Structures are given as structure tokens and as C-alpha cells.
Amino acid sequence: MRISRSTAGTAFVGGAMILTLTALAYPSMLGVQNTASGQDRIIANTQYGPLTEADRDFVVKVRAAGLWEQPLGQMIMERSKSPAMIEVAEHLLVGHGRLDAGCRKVSTDLGITLPNEPSPQQQQFVATAEGSSGKEFESTAVTLMRIAHGGIFPTIAKIRATTRNSMVRELADTTNDTVLDHITVLEKTGLINHEQVSFQITAPPKLPQEQTTPPPPQQGAPVRVLEVPENLKDLQTVAPNPSYGAPQPTPTAN
User: Fold this and answer.
1) CATH classification code of 52-194
2) Where do the structural domains in the chain lie, given as residue ranges?
3) Which of 59, 151, 197, 235 has its CA 20 to 30 A from that of 203?
4) Is 13 helix (H, G, I), strand (E, B) or coil?
5) What share of the chain is helix, strand, coil (3-state, %, to 5)?
6) What is the pLDDT along the chain (254 residues), one digit of tens a residue?
């Protein structure tokens, strides 16, 4: 997927990256009317257990993450020669390809409508990275993804702790491992500005819902598939074993 630069906002203001990541709080899903407050409302009883609004929202959220992070991984593959950045790209392509297969399976069995495009905000994330070059591109891409991956952790934990649906529970387990794997390879680049990450995760600005909601798929349109590249199908993308006391990479100045 190619996302136009025309949707890009200004990524750097006064030397600081200004990012809005309320897409991680995805309040309502495609084609479903909210008729009760609270996401614990059961919207379907299935053979895998009850499905709540929160369960459905989680599946769509995982799908939407792949719709912008996989194209960004492809962009890194095309632009970067650094082994650390190539590793990031490979793990993004494989991790989100496998998660997407899980989302498509869950959506079919549980009757969940999936988007085929990321939200306008997520499109802007890709366009912002695309509009930069060299080390700025690498730093922008890595920091955007580190903020997004860090921000999704509380959602994964809450779903894993509360869902009564076995398919959603399994997707949460896989998502947790994938996100931790991605955070690990992102941090290995040494390009992350941790002050920006901490600020954006703890105090994300608010955006209108239409900016953070993926558009519904066109009627009758086939579900888009995020493929795992053939040459990377054996790549392991699970959470790493701990290596206590390992030296940390020194962040590169932006």
C-alpha cells in the first residue's frame, strides 16, 4: 500500500516530534451501533464464549495496527541499509502478517467486520515517515512505532485479563508476544528518544473520532491480506529470553 504524502502533518516542531496516538483508544467499531455504555456489553454469544464490545474492538485494533505498520516495514526495507533497521523491518512484516492471519480467522468465526485501510491518523503516521529521509527517516519511523507499541500494552493486558472468549484470548497472547518482540528490535536500533516515548504514552492528545477510526470496507470488497514474505516465513517473532545486565544502546541524537 502506498499512502500519499498529502495527508502528512508536520512531524517536527521546534525539534520535538509531536505525535497523537489516540487511535490506540479506538472507541467504536465498524458497522456496529453502541447501544450501551461500557465495553463489557455482550454483543454475541459464540461457541468460543461471549463476545463483548471490548473484544471486538481489540480484534479491529490489532488489524488496524498491521495496516499501517506493515507498509512502514516495507518502506524501511526499501530505504535502509542498517542491519538493525533491516531486522526491524523483517520483524514488522512477519509479526503483523501472522497477527493479520489470526485477525482474519477470528473475524470469520466471530462475525467481526475488519477494515481494509488504516485510520486517517495512522495514514498520517506513515506519510510523516515517508516525508523524511536518511537518519531522520529511521529515527522518525522507529520512534513512531515504539510509541504505538508501548501504548497498546495496557489494552492487551486488559483484554487478556477480562475476555471470556477463547479466540480473543489466544489472539491477545500472540499479540503480546509480537509487541514485545517488536519493542525489543526497535530498542536495539539505539534511535529511540525515550523522553518523547514517555510523554506521548502518558499524555496523548485527544483527536476527533473520525480521525482515529478506520473507514469501513466497501460493500462486497474482499478482505485485504497482509502476507508474510516467503523468504521470512521461518523467522521467529516471539518474546526474547531475558538477558539481565546487557548493555543498553546509546540513543542517537536527532
Assistant:
1) 1.20.1260.10
2) 52-194
3) 59
4) strand
5) 55, 5, 40
6) 444 433 333 333 323 343 333 333 333 333 333 434 467 899 999 999 999 999 999 999 999 999 999 999 999 999 999 999 999 999 999 999 999 999 999 999 999 999 999 999 899 999 999 999 999 999 999 999 999 998 888 999 999 999 999 999 999 999 999 999 999 999 999 998 788 888 887 777 678 888 888 888 998 899 999 999 999 988 887 755 555 554 555 555 55
